[in-house]
Amino acid sequence: MLHYDYIRPDQEYQAFLDQGEIRIQRSRSSGKHVFYPRVMEPGTGATDLEWVPITGQGTIYSVTVIHPKPPAAPYNVVLVDLDEGARMMSRVDGAEVESLAIGQRVKATIATIDGKQAVVFERA
Question: Whole-model pTM?
Answer without folding.
Answer: 0.89
